[in-house]
Specification:
This protein is of the alpha/beta class. It has two helices and four strands; from the N terminus they run E-H-E-E-H-E. Strand 1, helix 1 and strand 2 form a beta-alpha-beta unit. The longest helix is centred in the first third of the chain and has 11 residues. It is globular.
C-alpha cells in the first residue's frame, strides 16, 4: 500500500504520533510526505517528500506518475485545488 502523509497541519500537529506511525508502516507499506510547499521550504521527516509547489496534490502526483492508495490530509480539498 502506498500512503501519502501531509506535513503542515497533519505531521506538524503531533510529530511523535506520526513518527510512530511512519515507523510502523516502513516494513509493509510505502509512505511518502506530500506537501504543497516549494522545494526551497525543506521538510525532513525521514521519508521521501514530494513538493507540489502550491499545485493540487493528487493532480500533481498523477502528473509525475505517483499514485497513492491512502491520503492522510487535514485539508483534503487541496488534493484537487491549487493553492
Amino acid at each position: 500500500m502506498r500512503i501519502a502523509l501531509d506535513f503542515d497541519g497533519c505531521y506538524t500537529e503531533d510529530p511523535a504520533l506520526w513518527d510512530k506511525f511512519i515507523e510502523s508502516c516502513r516494513d509493509k507499506h510505502d509512505i511518502w510526505c506530500v506537501t504543497m510547499r516549494y522545494p526551497t521550504e525543506k521538510v525532513d521527516i525521514g521519508i521521501p517528500v514530494i513538493y507540489t509547489s502550491r499545485k493540487a496534490k493528487k493532480i500533481h502526483c498523477s502528473s509525475i506518475g505517483m499514485h497513492f492508495d491512502i491520503w492522510i490530509d487535514d485539508s483534503p480539498e487541496w488534493l484537487f485545488k491549487n493553492g
